[in-house]
Amino acid sequence: MRHTVPAPPLPRSSAPTLDDARWAAVTxxxxxxxxxxxxxxxxxxxxCRPSCAARRPKREHVRFHDTAAEAEQAGFRACKRCKxxxxxxxxxxxxxxxxxCRLIETAEEPPKLAALAASVGLSPYxxxxxxxxxxxxxxxxxxxxxxxxxxxxxxxxxxTVTEAIYGAGFASNGRxxxxxxxxxxxxxxQFRSGGPNAEIKFAxxxxxxxxxxxxASEKGVCAxxxxxxxxxxxxxxxxxxxxxxxxxxxxxxEELAAKVIAFVExxxxxxxxxxxxxGTAFQHRVWDALRRIPAGSTASYxxxxxxxxxxxxxxxxxxxxxxxxxxxxxxxxxxVRTDGGISGYRWGVERxxxxxxxxxxx
Length: 362
Fold this sequence. Notes:
Layout: H1 18-28, E1 38-41, E2 46-48, E3 62-65, H2 68-73, E4 77-78, H3 89-106, H4 113-119, H5 124-135, H6 139-157, H7 161-167, H8 173-177, H9 180-184, H10 188-192, E5 199-207, E6 210-216, E7 221-227, H11 230-240, E8 245-248, H12 251-265, H13 281-290, E9 299-300, H14 301-307, H15 314-323, E10 335-336, H16 349-361
């Protein structure tokens, strides 16, 4: 059964076929599907993009094609209005945003909005709007995330903390220290020395889905990992928290781990535990939307993008799902393709299918 994220609302559907989903995109003139498929009209001999503003044809006269070349091989000619043989507006915008991202990533200091817009040939207002629509975050937020990433790298290799702070593009020590706890999760000195006070407790248990690793910081559960063996899961945890001190859980932690395992086996019981969720602002928006999908229901990547107010960020939504390290608790397994198909799960498609089956039965 398909369902919707309660707020903001998502369109309700019930296991649509691929053609049903494509027709819905044509009906909505949805530009996010431009380049993913084309449609042709038997009565006119023309093929178009899904977003074409031409008069909507009758469904019985419409055929769908994976590529423009496929439509032309079938004997249809390109629409002169939407020009499907040329790059779409969405593609052009994506290219400009990608160019701006490269400039942000290579700049010594975060570029000003006006300079970024001018570099890609757009007005500041238009550039800001398409950047946020494409990535789900503003240019400033993206630049901040890149600078934070750079300071973590600089702290790992610079001779002093001060050198790392200026090397990452901060104008002063004071400005960095004001946000250092949020950026690093600890003081710069602790980060440089490997985070000696950052302790993560963990336990590994077996379940019907294989091995399950549960890990928690002092703030809450920070990882629920699924896998085939304990050694692989522990290696995964070490890679995700390379500077933390990993310790086996005590009796109290065993009780927490048992609750997580019970949740894996029966997702509808819910998981009322504090979570330590670390990610970008955009990832948090996606993960919050995922947690609003009820057990036993699913939503598509496009629906999630729509729900968070970034309808063009379908790929970024998929990336946020892949970055989730709290399996089940943040239910990325409830996100499916537009046609209802199951694909793309960090811990394996078969586990995703099994989880959905558990939720459908319980």
